Amino acid sequence: MKKKQSKKKTKFKKKKNYSEKTAFANIEKASSTETIPKRSSTGIPKYVADRMARRIFFTAGIPTILGMSVFVVSYIIVTRNIAEIPPSSTIAISALFFLLGLAGLSFGILSASWDKEPGSFFGIENIPMNIQRAKAAFKPATQNFEDKS
Q1: What is the pLDDT of residues 53-89, one digit of tens each?
Q2: Positive or negative torsion for Cα 41, 47, 50, 51
Q3: How far is it, in rounded angstroms, from Cα 56 to Cα 106?
Q4: DSSP at 40
Q5: What is the pTM of this model?
């Protein structure tokens, strides 16, 4: 519900009349003087993100595709009477590939080098350093939460 607003006395106030030309000129001046502040980027650099994407494609994408193809291959084997495969083993093998893809996703993110140079093939030496970076990224948020409570 809206509150009733009292009527103000407008006897002694004069309205300012602006011509269309000056009114729109003032708007254009105001909009042209605004400057867009430059954002300081604290995110992941593009070359690191590209490196992570390549690693994720191989370490998570391929096992995930294999996890889906297990159902197709199992269906073909069972329908052509090549072998009798229990459904539980099909699901177990598929789940194994999906879990391998989940582990590959984490590995692909954590093993990417943040240097300009690509680093080693597997990138295992970068994992402890990237875990520390991830912990440091979440640390200020948890400190602010604890201060308020």
Answers
A1: 999 999 999 999 999 999 999 999 999 999 999 999 9
A2: negative
A3: 8
A4: P
A5: 0.59
The answer to whether 127 and 96 are in contact (CB under 8 A) is no
CA-based nearest residue to 100, from 130, 62, 70, 127: 62
* C-alpha–C-alpha distance, residues 142 and 59, integer Å: 31
Among the residues of the chain, which ranges form H helices? 20-33, 46-56, 62-79, 87-110, 127-148
Q: Which amino acid is at 78?
A: V
Other beta carbons within 10 Å of 64: 16
- Convert 96-129 to b/e letters by CB count within 10 Å (16 or more is b): ebbebbeebbebbbbbbbeeeeeeeeebeebbee
For the record, the structure tokens of 27 come out as 């708007």
**Would you say 70 and 85 are in contact if contact means Cβ atoms under 8 Å apart?**
no
User: Is residue 70 within 8 Å of residue 90, measured between CB atoms?
Assistant: yes
How many Å apart are CA 70 and CA 125, to the nearest integer? 33
Q: What angle do CA 11, 15, 19 make, to 5 degrees?
A: 160
